[in-house]
Write a structure and sequence with these properties.
The protein contains 14 helices and no strands. The N and C termini lie close together (10 Å). The chain has one domain. The chain is globular and about 55 Å long. By secondary structure, it is mainly α.
Length: 378
């Protein structure tokens, strides 16, 4: 952890702004914090029954839960442009910046490994990919592309990533299923994960990973769409004009995603091109709303809990994951839930109350760290 004196260095983290210096746009912090609190909510249901919007879509389609992870990847892309763009403008060389990016990506990747290793540390079945691992890979790839290309080339990269993923999913043959099968069992991404990852796949599926190898390509595209939003935010024009441009791009991407959905269904587990495009459209729109509410109207006090959480988002995520694993492994989750939550509400509402209690606990942690001026260094 870092004290107040080292806050400036903490702020160089890929996803953390400088809490000691007023950020140009508090809206991005608020968006990040809201996303993280919602991730804690949907990841920590108390019982086996939850409201549909607090669960991932079974396959095609989307719920509120499905919007959260791509939002975090997209926000990381925005942060790349704002942070690295500022440092490049200050005259820093690309080589040293690339070393910093690589170090942070490696640390984040290994934190992801630790999350899935805890508490049993069964390395024979260690999950190699996952949430933090995907963020690390997308951050690294998008940062390299941003550092060594211009806006036009970055747009070409987005098209190429989406196009190559679609070509593989549509035309690569899967033994026993043929090409172009997008079912859970017969898609090409599943086939690659089963061969390459083997025993190191997602524990709930055994044979494939929702953050798998091939679907990382469009996820990098998600980060690069965040980079595009960062370019808009860095324009030297009035904030209201930038907000309008974000909103227009968001509406355009939403339309493209819905049209694409006709031929290529919106699917979070496959991270289809239509999913990546549609979710980025939502993110452009939500950030535009936050900018209007927080930065233009100056109503940041109304989103203070989001701002506080956003300044320690990775810490909150790690704490929530480790605590949940500990409670499950020790049997405390089941014991506490049956004693204090199950008797007072219906199964769905009892599960929701547990999740809300978890969110409150994680917010208290974020508030405590904020009050002490402690921020995780990556």
């Amino acid at each position: 952890m870092a004290s107040q004196e080292t806050t400036a260095s903490v702020a160089k983290s890929m996803n953390q702004p400088d809490p000691a210096t007023p950020a140009r746009l508090l809206s991005l912090d608020a968006f990040r914090g809201l996303t993280m609190l919602l991730m804690v909510l949907v990841n920590n249901g108390g019982g086996p029954q939850s409201y549909a919007q607090l669960e991932h879509s079974a396959w095609d389609g989307w719920t509120l839960t499905d919007t959260l992870f791509p939002s975090f990847v997209w926000i990381a892309g925005v942060a790349i442009t704002l942070a690295l763009g500022r440092r490049l403008a200050n005259g820093e060389a690309r080589g040293p910046l690339l070393k910093v990016v690589f170090r942070r990506a490696v640390i984040l990747y290994f934190l992801g490994l630790l999350v899935y290793a805890f508490p049993h540390f069964s390395f024979a079945h260690q999950r190699l990919l996952g949430v933090l691992q995907r963020i690390a890979i997308c951050y690294l790839a998008a940062s390299v592309i941003y550092l060594y290309t211009g806006i036009r080339a970055q747009i070409v990269w987005i098209v190429a990533l989406f196009g190559s993923y679609w070509l593989m999913m549509a035309f690569m043959n899967v033994p026993g299923w043929g090409p172009g099968n997008l079912s859970m069992e017969g898609n090409f991404a599943h086939y690659v994960d089963s061969i390459v990852l083997g025993a190191h796949n997602y524990a709930h599926t055994k044979t494939w990973d929702p953050e798998g190898i091939v679907s990382t390509l469009p996820a990098i595209g998600t980060a690069l769409l965040g980079v595009m939003a960062g370019h808009i935010l860095r324009l030297d024009i009035p904030l209201a004009v930038r907000r309008h441009r974000l909103l227009l791009v968001g509406v355009f991407l939403l339309a493209i995603g819905l049209i694409w959905n006709i031929k290529l269904p919106i699917n979070k587990k496959l991270w289809t091109d239509s999913f990546a495009t549609f979710m980025a459209g939502l993110d452009f729109g939500v950030l535009a709303v936050f900018i209007w509410f927080v930065d233009e109207r100056g109503l940041s006090k109304w989103v203070k809990p989001f701002l506080i959480t956003g300044m320690n988002a990775i810490t909150v995520y790690l704490a929530s994951e480790f605590l949940a694993e500990f409670l499950d492994a020790t049997g405390l989750h089941e014991s506490l839930y049956k004693r204090f939550f199950a008797p007072i509400a219906s199964p769905m509402n009892a599960s929701l109350l547990w999740a809300l209690s978890f969110v409150a606990l994680m917010y208290l942690l974020a508030w405590f760290l904020y009050r002490r001026r402690w921020f995780l260094r990556i």
